[in-house]
Amino acid sequence: MKQGRLSLYNDALASQICELIAEGKSFRAIAEMPGMPKSRTMFTWLREKEDFQQNYTRAKEEALEAAIEEIDYIANTEEDVNRARLKIDAIKWKASKLLANKYGEQKKVVDVNINSYQKWIQEEILVGEQHQELLQAGQEYQEYE
Questions:
Q1: pLDDT score of 7 more than 90
Q2: Among 31, 72, 113, 143, which is 20 to 30 Å from 20 by CA?
Q3: Backbone phi, then psi, for 93, in 5-degree steps?
Q4: Res. 96: pLDDT tops 60
Q5: CA neighbor of 69 nearest in space, from 106, 22, 105, 27
Q6: How far apart are the C-alpha atoms of 50 and 43, rounded to whole Å?
Q7: CA–CA separation, 6 vs 21, rounded Å?
Q8: 10-62: CATH architecture
Q9: Contact 58/18 with Cβ under 8 angstroms?
Q10: Residue 91's pLDDT is what?
Q11: How high is the pLDDT of residue 21?
Q12: What single DSSP character describes residue 99?
């Protein structure tokens, strides 16, 4: 009977990995640390372990929020302006995609009430016609004098 490898997964290890993710580490960087699983293993856990998936998602959000808070620091301390711009743009792009509800471009849906719009147009036409009548009356009055 063929046996698969024993899973290293346990709550303590998963929690430690998520703490490292919240600090901004990637699976690749974590996998290079002693005693940590390979990144492929962590991706498998992400697919198969619902608790790990939820904690990972929270940790990624925390890491991104921390990176967003670093934008001012980067802007004020990075001597190379182009490098600073690149770092900041990367953070902003990630935020707009991963936390779109909070940092993405807001799309406004305009509800146009056709009846109100038509009424407004009619009022504008009426005002324009009244204006024309007043102008014409003024010209006639000047001609009369």
A1: no
A2: 72
A3: -65, -50
A4: yes
A5: 22
A6: 12
A7: 24
A8: Orthogonal Bundle (1.10)
A9: yes
A10: 86
A11: 94
A12: T
Please give the backbone phi and psi of residue 2, each rounded to the nearest 5 degrees, phi first.
-85, 135
Instruction: Spell out the residues 6+ positions from residue 22 whose beta carbon is closer than 8 angstroms to its own.
Output: 58, 59, 60, 62, 63, 66
pLDDT band at residue 1 under the 50/70/90 scheme = very low
CA distance 113 to 126: 20
**With bands split at pLDDT 50, 70 and 90, how would you rate the model's confidence at 67?**
confident
Residue ranges per structural domain of the chain: 10-62, 70-105, 108-145
Two tokens at 41? 């293993």
pLDDT average, residue stretch 110-121: 58
- Which carries the bigger pLDDT value, residue 43 or residue 96? 43
Q: Residue 16 corresponds to which tokens in the numbers above?
A: 């430690």
How is 11-72 classified by DSSP, letter by letter?
A: HHHHHHHHHHHHTT--HHHHHTSTTPPPHHHHHHHHHH-HHHHHHHHHHHHHHHHHHHHTHH
